[in-house]
Request: fold
Amino acid sequence: MNVLIIDDDRFVVAALEKKVMWRELGVERVYTAYNIRQARKVIEENTIQLMLCDIEMPQGSGLELLAWVRDEKLPIETIILTSFAEFDYAQDAVKLDCLDYLLKPVNYGKLTEIIQKAIKKIREQEKAKKSIVQQFWQELLQRETTDEKELLMRKVEQKQLDYREEETFILIFAGIYPGYDQTAEYTEAVLDFSFKNIWSEVFLQHRAKAEILIDLQMFYYLAVIRLDEKVSGSKAVKQILKSVMENLGRCMGYDSGFCMSKPVSIWECADTFEELTNVCSRDLFCRNNISEYPPALQKESAYAPACISQIEIFLKHNNQEQVLTAIRQYIQEQCQKKTFTYTVAWKFKRDVEQLVLSYLQEKEIEGHRLFMDEKSGYYEKRALSSIEDYQSCFEHMITRAVEYAGFAEKSKSVIDIVTGYIEKNYEQEINKKTLADIVYLNPDYLGKLFKKKTGISVNNYVMKVRVEKGKDLLANTDIPINVIALDTGFSNYSYYSKVFKELVGCTPNEYRKKME
Reply:
């Protein structure tokens, strides 16, 4: 909230600056002027929401200034402060939609009340207008309203928006690229808020704003910028975006990228929106760039990656680094040839994924389960966002697959995890599938491996652990036997008694008496 005080008496201006508790009222900055010429200059160079204005001044009256504000359709509320009580002045002020009319000497208590009323009115008006503007642009860009020139301009007039036929707009496709560690530390909502907050602050510093900032999908946005004297063209917009990019990197530590349309008329915005989002959402090279639409597109070419057979061989030999080197070299070669299109990237990723799943299947590892964790989900979702994300996805995929395959081959490690889980969760329902999910192995393969290493089946091992836990409770507590049965994972007393006798040689009741 910015305020402008205009009075030719410097003492009056100084008193108003000092005696009104502006900051407590929510005012960020108070500008001053001592004549109409200075006042107009301040208004033209800054966003002013409230004016406190004298009437009689040497170089023009405050009413003349107010008339100019109304002619320019500037949304500025005005409070007249004057030493003159003439009815004509008051009448003219009312005609010019003056908020209030106060006689000097000023009663600062009364003035504060009027300013509070003005600020409340301004905020309500800004909120209402913002809602109208947002709805207008959403309907236009999503083609819920006509973009035919004459009908659209009629709608602009009906909604009392100040867009003119000759005005132009720049649409911006924006993307942010937080790493996995940042998404783990901050929620998506926090990252989204940080982007929008920095965006708004930077645009405000340049005395500019977006008409609308739309969420497209996770971490992608579309903004509409209205060109005017302050932001006059693509060069000015690019400078603002550069500042946004620098601030996001410095304050939040993540990358961003932008693609701008050429300046277009308001009735061309819907078509431009469609073209921009369709192309830029598939642009792997937007990150860390501020490009103009259309971006430098990759050339379509036949998809025939010779390295796929090499990758398959490297995987069979568990050679993680050679696999990643082959992938990096292929990506680099395609980028240099400018043939690395979204389609090529998608096909190559699917081919490598198929090799990885086959590699894991040969080792009895269920790949679809291995990659169901949150981190894998993040890399999968972001893989085709940028070249950097694409490479990171492969690094995660290959590293996780090869390292886990190496771990699974050490059967002792797998069995230790399984037995440890049984020890901690014996009271729950446990079967081969439950345990296979934990170690990402095929259930039948796990059953065979477990029996080979322990000498007993998974089910018998679970029963053995449950009975041992029950023996401890029988010997050291007076908990009823039927409760112990349920607490150690058995569904009923009779089955518990049967298994207990098979393993211990006596019933639970006989065992308790023996231990007394």
